């Protein structure tokens, strides 16, 4: 630590903010190493023929990530942000090694339990740390940059592993990238990242509630069980964001686990499947560079509703498509819709939650959001087994449409422009 008192603002904390962007890119790379290769491994090397069986790795990942998200919020409020971040990277170290040499599918599931813990602890903590640093004026921009870094890295790694697999095979070479990401992430987090909890305390000390008194009941001393209730079902904006996040990741789980199989069934080569697997998070990632900041100017709700309807339309196009060009357009639209939704939901949580318990609120939101992987793996897997891959995609499109309607009806606008946004 430098000994200087903390100051809020992007410019005032630029060096640490950029460092945390880089760290979150490495977090995304750990996730991206699986996006192209693992669904194909399930069938070709491990002989899994039922879609519900293939999706067990996503179920394991989503369940542990959801729990880790919740734990990350509570632990970072109690012990600080940096210890949680470093702990998450320590858990990541065995993941690529297990994926390289797994003798059975059970080992792959074990690797995804560890990956879920890594993603929950590290990604949640980088979210909280960036919100801590920038203060209320640039929250949408901060979340856009954070999520852009993570998902551009997901896309780049998915593309790279697809090309590596096309040339060298599905294992072990594609997972060499994961070894490098884990080592670099641990090193940067341990040696260079600084604690940000004092920034949250500074904001809490100067916190001013909404002029309309809407958040008066969300005071600094709210206990954890009340935070869980408010974010899950009581507070309209917080709970609407949580449920929209769950549907978003339900959709993402299908894109991760089933769409590569759908494309393979149509006869696309591994390299083209890798391109499609990368296009979706690439558009999602780069799009967030604009959408996070846009939500600071236009508000959160319009972007969330528009994004969910665009996601549903993209899934419908996937379902009716039958060629690489059509699917390329569909995944680009899917990425654009997700770019509108993803950082804006996080910014909504930051808008409403009191700084004193914001980390725990982010943890509860991400518990719900990543629980969508579990629901998606179960529901979509069973539908795909019974009625086929296309039916599963249509079902998720319908759920996404319903979620967009729910946000339109229930969520109020949470963002009020704050003086000093030029910071």
List keywords for this structure.
0% strand; Growth Hormone, Chain: A; 423 residues; disordered C terminus; globular; 18 helices; mainly alpha; single chain
How would you describe the overall organization of this protein?
The chain is mostly helical and 423 residues long. It has a single domain (14-200, 221-410), classed as Up-down Bundle (Growth Hormone, Chain: A). 78% of the residues lie in helices and 0% in strands. The chain is built from 18 helices and no strands.
Q: How is the topology of this model organized?
A:
Layout: H1 14-32, H2 37-44, H3 51-54, H4 56-79, H5 81-92, H6 95-101, H7 105-134, H8 139-168, H9 176-191, H10 197-205, H11 224-234, H12 236-257, H13 259-265, H14 270-298, H15 301-320, H16 324-352, H17 358-387, H18 389-410
Helix pairs in contact: 1-7, 1-8, 1-9, 4-5, 4-7, 4-17, 5-7, 5-9, 6-7, 6-9, 7-8, 7-10, 7-17, 8-14, 8-16, 11-12, 11-17, 12-16, 12-17, 12-18, 13-14, 14-16, 15-16, 15-18, 17-18
